[in-house]
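Tokens for chain A. Residues wanted.
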């Protein structure tokens, strides 16, 4: 479904064209993560850098919506619809739409977007993109697009940043406990779709998850990466395994749960991985009675039975609550119970690795902070980090806002009566976090500090260069990237952090 792009705005954008000074011919703006709010509790090791992601997908959609919803439509119809809505909403007569007609006659969006390469991480305060009009009469268009730019980009960048922080955490513990580093790519599995704000939100956030991982239950995220980032060139975009839900496990009633599990692992899935949700009635009974009764069948399978608890305190469920008798399964926790029943081996680093016929996944209310607590307890218990997979859901990917990293688009330069003017904001009533850059912007890679650095109020000749590269100009997408390159960039970032 295509949206009318003229209406993808906050209402006040409608008449800003007349509010700019007479003689204005250019507005130059940037989109920047400006600050963090309580991120260090959300992301324990966060180093104030945000992952750049989603720009190419956004531009694809921007172009498609403007083509189908504006340029390819009859001009008289477009103007009648626009004029009618604006006049009714504002209660005015004969709203001037000549600038909209002129844009339709032009036939493309006269703007230039420059951006940091996707998959790179930018420090807070460094712009991820700039945007400017390329035709003087369409100076109003730059910030007319602010609303849709902000709404479309803050979420995928926030989700990609959170995914990277999961990857950093899991890699750290994999190295500590001797786990296979290749397994980390699948150790955080996206469970978020059902808790997101619709298909588009879920797809963008799910695609962002897949910049750092390859495990997902969000099928539409794979489609997005296939369509917008040449995902078909990757050996694996995203993957999953057969898994049950409570409707399946409950159809046989509580008395039939054992038979349901047996049928699943011996008849429906006699080989391969099968994930079974085990908390429909009594998780501890399933873990310590039903599965041990099926031990011979489980060990004989050519595959793995993955146990999925789905309720309770994840830290206590996985690693034990320590509040009862040591003989109580809740005291020991799911991981120790599986070890006690099915055994395993000790890896080269001296940590316990479960019998490969069984596994454990937890996907309820998992955050980076909780995952960190679980991994810390596992390490103290002597377990390798690879014994657990985390299902990362909407509790993490939806429990954020645009203000999590303070994303905002602000104008910093204008041309008025042929003179370039630096513009900025610095409200005294704020804490300094809303102070904007000024003038034209230049971003360079500082090799000594190994990070991007912003210089503002630069000359036009300087602004042309730097790490902000043109990705869209006058209706054309350019300097395309792909999923493989994005993942490669993030892998290099991770390597630098772990050196």
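Reply:
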């Amino acid at each position: 479904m295509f949206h009318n792009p003229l209406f993808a705005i906050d209402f006040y954008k409608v008449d800003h064209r007349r509010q700019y000074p007479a003689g204005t011919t250019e507005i130059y703006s940037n989109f920047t993560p400006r600050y963090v709010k309580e991120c260090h509790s959300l992301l324990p090791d966060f180093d104030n850098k945000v992952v750049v992601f989603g720009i190419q997908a956004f531009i694809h959609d921007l172009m498609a919506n403007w083509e189908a919803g504006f340029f390819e439509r009859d001009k008289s119809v477009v103007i009648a619809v626009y004029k009618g809505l604006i006049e009714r909403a504002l209660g005015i007569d004969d709203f001037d739409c000549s600038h909209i007609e002129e844009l339709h006659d032009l036939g493309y969006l006269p703007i230039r977007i420059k951006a940091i390469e996707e998959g790179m991480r930018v420090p807070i305060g460094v712009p991820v993109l700039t945007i400017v009009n390329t035709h003087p009469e369409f100076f109003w268009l730059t910030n007319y697009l602010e609303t849709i730019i902000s709404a479309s980009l803050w979420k995928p960048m926030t989700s990609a940043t959170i995914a990277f922080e999961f990857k950093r955490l899991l890699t750290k513990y994999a190295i500590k406990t001797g786990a296979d580093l290749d397994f980390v790519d699948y150790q955080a599995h996206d469970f978020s779709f059902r808790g997101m704000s619709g298909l588009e939100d879920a797809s963008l956030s799910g695609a962002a998850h897949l910049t750092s991982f390859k495990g997902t239950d969000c099928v539409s995220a794979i489609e997005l990466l296939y369509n917008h980032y040449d995902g078909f060139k990757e050996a694996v975009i995203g993957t999953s395994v057969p898994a049950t839900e409570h409707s399946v496990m409950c159809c046989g009633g509580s008395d039939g749960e054992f038979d349901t599990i047996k049928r699943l692992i011996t008849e429906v899935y006699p080989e391969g991985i099968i994930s079974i949700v085990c908390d429909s009635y009594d998780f501890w009974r399933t873990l310590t009675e039903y599965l041990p009764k099926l031990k011979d069948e489980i060990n004989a399978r050519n595959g793995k039975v993955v146990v999925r608890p789905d309720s309770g305190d994840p830290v206590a469920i996985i690693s034990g609550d320590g509040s009862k008798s040591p003989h109580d399964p809740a005291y020991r926790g799911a991981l120790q119970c599986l070890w006690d029943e099915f055994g395993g081996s000790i890896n080269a680093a001296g940590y316990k690795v479960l019998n490969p016929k069984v596994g454990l996944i937890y996907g309820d209310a998992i955050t980076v902070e909780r995952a960190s607590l679980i991994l810390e307890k596992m390490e103290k218990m002597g377990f390798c980090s690879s014994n657990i997979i985390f299902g990362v859901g909407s509790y993490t990917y939806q429990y954020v806002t645009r203000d999590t990293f303070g994303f905002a688009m602000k104008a910093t330069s204008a041309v008025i009566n042929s003179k370039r003017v630096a513009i900025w904001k610095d409200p005294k009533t704020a804490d300094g976090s809303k102070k904007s850059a000024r003038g034209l912007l230049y971003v360079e890679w500082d090799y000594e500090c190994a990070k991007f650095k912003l210089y503002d109020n630069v000359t036009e000749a300087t602004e042309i260069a730097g790490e902000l590269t043109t990705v869209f100009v006058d209706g054309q997408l350019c300097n395309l990237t792909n999923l493989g390159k994005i993942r490669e960039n993030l892998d290099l970032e991770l390597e630098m952090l772990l050196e």
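The chain has a mean pLDDT of 95. The radius of gyration is 27 Å.
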